[in-house]
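Researcher: Here's a chain I'd like modeled. Treat it as a single chain, no partners, no ligands.
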Amino acid sequence: MYFINPFKGLRPNKNFVSSVVIPSTDHLSEELVHNHKKNNEWSFLNVLNPNEQNLNSENDKYQASKKQFELMKQNSILSKDDTNCYYIYKISTNNHSQIGIIGTVKISSYDDLHIRGHEEIFIERAQERSDQMLNLNAQIGPIYVIHPENELINSIINQQIINNPEYSFKSLDGCLHTFWKINSFNTIKNIGEVFTGINRVYIADGHHRMEAMQKLSNFKKHQNPNHTGNEAYNYTMVAAFPQSQARILDYNRLIKDLYGFSSENFIKEVKKKFIVKKNKEQFKPNIEKTFGMYIDKSWYSIEFKFTPDENLFHVNNLDINMLHYYLLEPILGIRDSRYDKRIDFLAGFKGLNSIEKKVDSGEYAVGFSLFPTQIEDVITFADKKINMPPKSTWFDPKPLDGLVLYDFE
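Model: Modeled as a single isolated chain. Structure tokens:
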């Protein structure tokens, strides 16, 4: 048994793959989701959010979801590989690509800190995920993890991707997704041994899915009087990418009002601690400890007049922390951004135009653009077993759901 293991993936028929798989719905408008579900009978959107009439209870929805999932298997839209495999997965955009390995890891590795997270877990969200997977008896998408750099893994991958892929298609997220199946005994052995030597990964996206898998595993363990620890439910599927290839986008802030200040007086308050310069164009920070601010149809760059206290947060002084401590809380009264309804968050893939649109509409009074959190910060927090502030990272692109599934049968 390796740290990351091969498994028999449940996968879409090649002829249907592009209509089956789904990206994070954060990328999609309600109209696009509606049309995709309507025009693609076998889309996983119809499993996760069935449209059948008379779904009056949560149990009704789960039954409809399970029914649709079973129909996909019965109609060979999904079929299971005959042998244990690793899967190589490449995601490409116009200016970025990342390529990694999909396999399974033992869930106990999460407790042993060989799988390390950086995000606060909200029990209700984790329970919803767990209930969903328990209903389908399958994990429909991998947990996105990163691993320390390793030339051997890179070399093995490069040797394999000269072969024809199982899939290569553009998805609703606008990315090109390319996928290879690896079932050669020697290649599987080599991949497994390298990952066993690495012996740790960091969760990029999927903290609640990880927590959900832990809940599901314990539930099934308690149901099984003959539990051995080797059952499928003791493992979870991950997509592991090299640290250097993971891309984190900015995660920007929007505030609904100026806490009683006029725009002029608010800017005067900001100038007490920051150098504020009006910009003719949008301002996207390209170095840490600088911020963009959009208010009254104008962009400003802001940077500290002084050196922030290095020990303020007892760990890396993230830009998000510093903006909160020196501006959002003392000037705008945002005490806890997890619960304050006056603050919202905007992922960087939506662009600075989205900040302008939301502020200009009057829905928000001011928006802030931030320099992205760095991958080294994520690893530092995870190694110290400390949660990062809410909405610190937006990893992009992300693995699709429905591209390969891990069932617990």
